[in-house]
Design a protein that fits this description.
Elements (H helix, E strand, L loop, with lengths): L16 E4 L30 E6 L6 E7 L11 E13 L1 E7 L4 H4 L7 E2 L4 E8 L5 E10 L11 E14 L1 H15 L19 H4 L4 E17 L10 E17 L4 E14 L19 E5 L11 E7 L3 E9 L1 E4 L2 H11 L9 H7 L2 H10 L2 E3 L14 E3 L3 E16 L8 E13 L8 E14 L3 H4 L1 E14 L22 E14 H17 L19 H4 L2 H12 L4 H10 L4 H11 L24 E15 L6 E16 L5 E14 L4 E18 L8 E7 L10 H19 L30 H5 L6 H10 L14 E6 L4 E8 L1 H7 L25 E3 L4 E4 L17 E8 L8 E2 L4 E7 L9 E2 L13 E2 L6 E10 L3 E8 L1 E5 L5 E7 L2 E7 L8 E3 L8 E6 L22 E8 L12 E9 L25 E7 L1 E5 L5 E5 L5 E4 L4 E3 L9 E6 L5 E2 L2 E3 L6 E8 L5 E12 L2 E7 L2 E5 L5 E5 L12 H4 L6 E3 L10 E5 L7 E3 L10 E11 ...
Parallel strand pairs: 1-2, 9-10, 15-19, 16-19, 23-24, 29-39, 40-47, 48-57, 58-65
Antiparallel strand pairs: 2-5, 3-4, 4-8, 5-7, 6-7, 8-9, 10-11, 11-12, 12-13, 12-14, 13-16, 14-15, 17-18, 19-20, 20-21, 21-22, 22-23, 24-25, 25-26, 26-27, 27-28, 29-32, 30-31, 30-33, 33-34, 35-38, 36-37, 38-39, 40-43, 41-42, 41-44, 45-46, 46-47, 48-51, 49-50, 49-52, 52-54, 53-55, 55-56, 56-57, ...
Helix pairs in contact: 10-11, 11-12
Amino acid sequence: MQNNEAAPYGWHGPAQGWLLNTRPERVKNAQGGASNVEKKPRSSPFNSASSSGFTLSRPKVLHAGTDPKHEDPASPEDHVCLLDCMALDLQEMDIFAAERLPCRPWDSTGKPEPSDLIFPSYSVRRTGDNLLKDCCRLTLKVERNLDGELSHAVPDTTIHGSLSSVHCSLDKKHYQLIRGILENNLGEPVEEFLRPYNLQDPSSYTVLSGAVFTNLSFLVDMTDVSLELLDSPTSAENRNSLARFDFMKSKVLFESLSDGSKSVNLVSHSLLAYDTRYAGTNRSTEGIRQNVFDCILQPSKTGTNRASLQLELHYRSTRDSSSFTVVLNNLRVFLIFDWLMLVQDFLRLQPENPPDSAECQQHCPGSTSANLSATGAVMPKTVKRGVVTKRSTVLVSQDRCLEVKINVTGTEFVVVEDLSCLDTNAVILKGTTVLTYKPRLVDRPFSGSLAGIEVFSCRLGSEQETALSIIDPVNVQVELCGSPTYQSSSGLLDAFNVEDIPPLLEIQFPALDIRLSYNDIQLFLSIAKSISAAKAPPSPPDLTDATPPPKDGVRQKTPSSLEIQLSHLQNLGFKKEDCKKALRDCKGHLDQAATWLLENSENMAGHPRGRADSGSSSHSCPLSGVEVKAESVCICFIDDCLDCDIPLAELTFSRLNVLQRIGSTQEGNASFTLCGDYYNREFSGWEPFIEPWPCFLSWQQQAAGRLHPPRLKIGIRAKQRLDVNITSVLLDQYNTTKTSWMADYCKTDKPTPTSSPPLPWLGSSVDPPGFGQSAPLAHLRTRSTASLTCLEQQIHSRDVKISKRRQPFVPYALRNHTGCTMWFATLTTTPTRVALSHSSSVDSISDIQSSGTDDTHNVSQWREVLPGEEIPFEFEAREKLRHRHTHELKLHQLLVRVCGWEQVKPVSVDKVGVFFRYAAPDKNNSSNTVGSPISRTNIIHPHVYFSALPPVRVVFAITMEGSARKVITVRSALMVKNCLDVQMEVRLDSPSAPDKPVVLPPILPGQSLAVPLHLTSWRLQSRPKGMGLFFCKVPIHWTNVERPGEVSSSKRECQSADFDDSLKRNFRFCVVIKKENFPEQQPAKRQVSGSTQQIYRQPGHTMYLLPTMVLSNLLPCDLNFYIKGTSIKGLLKPGKEAVLHSADTSQNMELGVMLESFPMCKELLIPPGTQNYVVRMRLYDTNNRLLCLTIRIILRAQGALKILVSSPYWLINKTGLPLIFRQDNSKTDAAGQFEEHELARSLSPLLFCYTDKEQPAMCTMRIGKGIHSDGVPGWCQGFSLDGGSGVRALKVIQHGNKPGLIYNIGISVRKGKGNYRDTHIVTFAPRYLLDNHSTHKLAFAQREFARGKMTVGEPVEEIQDSVACKSIHTS
């Protein structure tokens, strides 16, 4: 067989290429022709220097033959084509890099290698390792149309191949070699050698007949084919992998048509892409956060048909244009930004040693005509009418356009928060998108349709359960509107090119709903930080080394970022040398380099600048502006921080039209109607805080001028007034939300040393120790909040944000305090149905039996609640479109049925408050008793028969706990509240069965207890727990308090159970019964003897258990008290209270008080029936000086007194000097001052009062004698202690004609609040205070100017510590 060698035009220097090393036998077909395997080298025979290439080795031909194929009967040509069919089975296939050498390489290099391939004119030597992991097998079926001169019903040449189980690895050098082969060898336009026209049928030639047929059809089925990209050369010891693409089930189709057009189609039914940077022992990952989402491209988990099309890439090229189509279907794509940037840099690598255009033209003169034919003919523009057009003609070039179409269906784009954790938060973009770019359509070069686009966040691993919508599904239309088309007789306008006017991007959508929560903001901040880290620019390259270095080190010295910049500038149509010089002079700034090229370089003729051929460059195709049109844009802010998940507010922009100009003038305008609502959590409804307000907004970015820096000018025009509703609820919710958000964000921010090692839990999916929800909510609420400036600084300075789980929020909880077993169900209804169901009287007990509802289809299943149990529940299940139901006019109601009574009417739980329903006895129950079994609760219930149960009032108390959780407490209308300091027990018994009492659980101090629903009519008694006392003899009755708001009080006494009279100590307390604002009782329509109406007294009362006497110490010191004639005495700390249970307020009592240094007092007589009044108590110190304390007696209820002990004035000395006080014009100092007060200041406040009524109510002071032992301190001018502020000068007279000393003391008086309203707090402080916050010692001195001379009034002193303070009193 004769070996033929084809050398097409290509590179003409040291080149690389593909070679087929075959020894096939001649295959004869039916017409006696021969089939040769052609070798297509990358290098041309012009250069015999050494080069490298690839070699396919050891193919084997199994069989060949001819087979006639009948075409489809439906074909327009009724001709049976004769085909030459060859079946090739190539086994043990391998690919490796090789180098082209001269004919006899051993002449210069020594002995030949065993693997050398020797050809007559050159030889090939293998270099490097194999690209394939294992040898592969390629099956080819080749069909040639032998009747091509007669019919083209089938392609002239059809090749169908099958490739399976192939793993190919490419490093950067191999990728550059293959790309060079595709671009400069296989992709080189080659002249077609055609037979003379007179020897063939004109109908079979496209130029003559116009019929287009297929010349070549090449189809390869790929099964389990993997392509791996390597960062480093392929070696066993150092193998750094970057990515791997697995074509599990794909097809590649190449077709060449007779009109010169070509198409390449890649169809994949199963395609996977992997991030292999951290696979196995790829590289040392110590200190690096690995990416656990290694499968970047995978089938979507929500896809219905797994066998459907996943990816299709279609490229079609004609002489005039080319089109590229991308189809993605049911895929999940993880956007790992750093990996995507690395893969992009890898794929954009240019071939090594690219041929120069001038050299190509020198060696290949025909290439010039080929280039001209490829770019299209240049024709002059038709001369039109007008002024400018008649002077000259404009050359118009028909550019080759690239049309792009992207179709994405059911594909999810996932952005994760933490790459090192599988169970992390993520944001997913999903929808159907069709994008089309057709530059030939000047009016609409770009259009896009985004259908059902949605963005939601979720927790990977449980997407369906945790999916929360951020952007609801919306349909968006995007169009790039070009310049308007001018008429042919436009005149002067012909001088302007249409392409010089930038297009306008229009975005339209009907309604956009955005739901943004606290956790979403945290998630976006974390993702934005990872994106910025991935896009961080590398260190600026040394542009002096921009010229290609030797081949062995080119990849290590030339950064990929420099090549990207060079490609951007070359796309503008400039030479590569000029682009390198521009980048070198502009120090790597791309914008400045482009400006330099426009001013100093000429554009190459073969690369015209324009929007058609350089659409990828942002400098050649800018936008004139962006316009957004929408019917409405609604932004809903959600509070899902800590223990809630509730809407905050909504901002709605109706009839929105926004236009932003881009270019030399940065300006824009917007017109819309603004309205805002906030969500009232207590009423579960929306309330407006911004009324609808139509306005027009404009802005402009102004450059710097002489009088101002660069600034943004904003203007607002409106015809209507802006109405803003500010309510107390809105302010409270704002403060609450701000506090909780700041507390949650700042609770993990603790200053740590920068050199400390990272904690082991950083970057993990679990919450770190101490970060959980175990901390009490009150602790988080009471923490001091940081400022917004501090928050902004923490956002920029924080490196790691812990990925926290969103705790499921259940908005409702039901507590059973009825004392009986209860069942409940939820009901969602509308106000209209509620109004119809309540059209009759709801207060009548007789109507209770008809308490049904028509909304049976909305009633949930009944759930059982045991006594004392709390069960969380919700009305709507967790939805992806969160809080959508809040705008619907619905009522959330509860259906409750207590054991022993019939079902009550539905109760709405949307509002906070106290509601009630009546329940009638259930006589149809099979059980004969009601109550809870002993095993379920510690309340022992007797047998209560249904015949004895009256209709009861069931109370629903709805309260707000935490931030937004509503708790519904179902109880009776009879409450007992313990206001004592000890636990109290309550016993209930029935007059008909006094031997079977019921003792309720003890009531803690300050707590309340609801009497069981079936025991409200029983007698009630109480006693303290664990004190050995009997229950009070007189029962507590509530039936005599009938009118709403009426209060009744009485005293009770519990006798001691000890037989020893000396140890007996009775316990006294007061009972206050208050009737709540329940409606008046109405009779029930029940048939009794004599047909009379029986009235059941329904409880609606609260019983308060109060102490008989409470003594409160409002002094700043300890207080000793006693009651004369009794054993009651004790010590009371400042601000504390003492409850005197043994005090008998029905008798006369004498109260005595003693303080430190005040051992004597005159007892205060408190007679029975004492009302509210204020009295003074006299105390005497050890020097028999008088101090009067203020005693305020408050009557809380009949027999319940509260006594407040306070002082008229507190004198607080903060001067650091000893001060002595007395009443003005008084001869003695104030009580409580002794010799030690002359030497040093008192740390505790001094109790002061005016004891001499004949003297003015003024106070005076002096310096203690211990400061200046040789001086005489004098009293200052009197001052008032009742309010205001002032300054007094304290003089010290010195002996020996020395100048006196003056101390200026500041005085501040403020009145106490609350219980301290009878006290005035007077503070004495220096006028000046020097506080040294520096790290150095500071020396200071006071300077006085007298008669023009400077004298130093005080010696120089030093402040030793950085936190020390120094008071200055001297003037």
